[in-house]
Amino acid sequence: MIKSEPDVFGIDDLAAARGRRTSWDGVRNYQARNFLRDEMKRGDLAFFYHSNCAEPGIAGIAKIVKEGYPDTTAFDSSDPHYDPNSDPSRPRWYMVDVQLQRKLKRTIALAELKRHADDELRGFALLRRGNRLSVLPVSEEHWRFISSIE
DNA sequence: GCCAACGTTGGC
DNA sequence: GCCAACGTTGGC
After folding, report:
1. Angstrom distance (rounded) from CA A90 to CA A80
2. Which of A17, A116, A124, A140 has the most neighbouring CB atoms within 10 Å?
């Protein structure tokens, strides 16, 4: 799952992007970085989640079209995500490229997902207390369940 | 706008 | 290595 604030870059922005794809850059959290760098494979699907907005929830599905590679925004001193501690010879931050697979027929609200926190979605990282990860794993079982309630 | 939950930073 | 201060995330 990849999270984004729709006011900044939402599912419709991805739909409007050239090739319906974009670089998922600017992630500056080590755990999230590890998922981008090590876990997400070309062809994998990811839920696109809208955070920090009126109706937080899953808005669409994206596909990983390029596996983890160094996040070049970290090297650009004029970029808001610039990190002087990330050296091009030893990059600290990684990104992937994603492409819109499709928007969901409806946004599956966080409130609805929460109703299944103790059964079908038990253990889902999104629902764990204090979760703030912007990139997080979804198990096969959880993926199938969420797909089934669309 | 408020606030809880973190992660990071930096002094010691 | 500890821990207080600070900044950020994100639901409400």
Report:
1. 20
2. A124
Residue A52 structure tokens: 């920090």
Q: What is the pLDDT of residues A28-81, one digit of tens each?
A: 999 999 999 999 999 999 999 999 999 999 999 999 999 999 999 999 888 888
The C-alpha torsion from A144 through A23 and A2 to A140, rounded to 10°, is: 30
Looking at this protein, which amino acid is placed at residue A65?
V
- Residue-wise pLDDT tens digits, A131-149: 889 999 999 999 999 999 9
- Is any atom of nucleic acid chain C found less than 7 Å from the CB of residue A55? no
Bases of strand C lying below 7 A from some protein CB: 8-12
Neighbours of A65 (CB within 10 A): 16
Q: What size, in residues, is chain A?
A: 150
At residue A30, what are phi and psi to the nearest 5 degrees?
-65, -40
Name the nearest CA neighbour of A24 among A86, A92, A96.
A96
Nucleotide nearest to A132 (CA to C1'): C9
Give the CA-to-C1' distance from A141 to C8 in angstroms. Answer: 31
- Euclidean distance between CA atoms A96 and A113, whole angstroms: 26
